[in-house]
């Protein structure tokens, strides 16, 4: 009998393979970073070949660490950075260009042009998404228009498109020798090419974005047996779950009921609320997305507030400014001062996502005086994450019509005690860290385990959720409102920095 379930977690900065036992405890884990490529200002790329190499390495390392054989694994699930766009050759398996990362801004002019023809929400009714540089459709269009001969080869069926889940599934299940070209509905819902109601590629959207249907993967559910892995370390292990990373974290946090919400603090911040089988169209700047779907069952949907830059701001302070040597040092530096000294940092490096959706905004630091030191800047860096989260929580409560009474958190930044306390203070409600912090990988494992019978039921998974730490607000309402009002003022300073050409 298989003892374990595996999860391949391919993120923005690294790739990780985790092995869980039947109790949902981590039995082994291996992780490796990959290069971040910045060819021009606002352009962000990854090398798909490097990601595939790192994938094979971490799978082999974790399996060896667990002293497991392929037969010990019931299945593996895949979770991935969403919207990141790859085109590869079906005959060679090689990408025709670097992957365009979700943060990439090169289609900003296309966003403006499409918006002029029908407004920023012209596709929202079908897709739940505004026009933005964020999503895959315009990135795919850019690749087809700028890579020599790509459009002709795509129409001829030589090239394949996918988000990272599709690319890795194809490679894992045989590559040029019969690899499966699929994506799940949670990832497909982030392309701006899928109809939320039909869960199918939409002809009107394909015409508008000039996308040939032949290049697209088949859309499947998030939890079913797709095929078997062909690489040595996990040969013949079923691949049985695919979820975009934020949807995977929602599942990993056991948010299976309408109204339950989680916030993931990673490169960006992503707050999702399960809305059940109802498609809730946002009026407050949020996204409507597929949460997950089990085979043969209706899809569950979610409202999402996407924030582009949170943990990435800490990395920027480390790598670009050299203020700290390691990311965790930001907390100690921030604790060297009592407050932010009146400093606010709006990290609109890739424009502003929810709830503003202003692609021509840019980052600003406001409130600097001669009194300001690097401790104040460090504190402003952490507080920016909490302020942005409050904006999204408020928008979500208006859209959903229900309060977020408790915020479940996960991701790398939840280890930062100062940030978590300030998050509770500025929200005025409890912030909860679960016992298992690796909720993204766990969600992918849950999807695969449900599809193969390794886990019994959703009720079984919900019973496993446990709390590690709870932060309660200690700040008085007057100070909370004062700080937040200055944050809102600082945000307006970032608007329209580039102007409209």
Topology:
Layout: E1 4-10, E2 14-21, E3 26-33, E4 45-46, H1 48-65, E5 73-80, E6 85-89, E7 99-100, H2 108-116, H3 124-127, H4 136-146, H5 150-155, E8 159-163, H6 164-172, E9 182-184, H7 185-188, E10 194-195, E11 200-201, H8 203-209, E12 218-220, E13 223-228, E14 238-244, H9 245-252, E15 261-265, E16 269-276, E17 287-292, E18 300-307, H10 311-319, H11 329-334, E19 344-346, E20 364-366, H12 374-400, E21 406-410, H13 417-427, E22 430-434, H14 439-452, H15 458-464, E23 467-471, H16 477-494
Parallel strand pairs: 1-5, 5-14, 9-12, 15-21, 21-22
Antiparallel strand pairs: 1-2, 2-3, 4-7, 6-8, 10-11, 13-14, 15-16, 16-18, 17-18, 19-20, 22-23
Would you identify the regions where 5 or more consecutive residues have pLDDT less than 50?
none
Continuous helix count: 16
E-strand count: 23
- Helical fraction equals 25-40%
Distance between the termini: 63 Å
Mean pLDDT comes to 93
- Overall shape: it is globular
State the strand order across the main sheet: 17-18-16-15-21-22-23
- Beta-strand proportion: 15-25%
Biggest beta sheet attributes: 7 strands, mixed
Helix vs. strand class: alpha+beta
Radius of gyration: 22 Å
Question: Can you walk me through this structure?
Answer:
34% of the residues lie in helices and 23% in strands. Helix 10 runs antiparallel to helix 12 and helix 12 (374-400) packs across helix 13 (417-427). It is globular and about 65 Å long. The strands form 7 sheets. A 7-stranded mixed sheet has the order 17-18-16-15-21-22-23. A 6-stranded mixed sheet has the order 3-2-1-5-14-13, with helices on both faces. It has helices at residues 48-65, 108-116, 124-127, 136-146, 150-155, 164-172, 185-188, 203-209, 245-252, 311-319, 329-334, 374-400, 417-427, 439-452, 458-464, 477-494; strands spanning 4-10, 14-21, 26-33, 45-46, 73-80, 85-89, 99-100, 159-163, 182-184, 194-195, 200-201, 218-220, 223-228, 238-244, 261-265, 269-276, 287-292, 300-307, 344-346, 364-366, 406-410, 430-434, 467-471. The mean pLDDT is 93. Strand 15 (261-265) and strand 16 form a beta hairpin. It has 16 helices and 23 strands. It is of the alpha+beta class and 501 residues long.
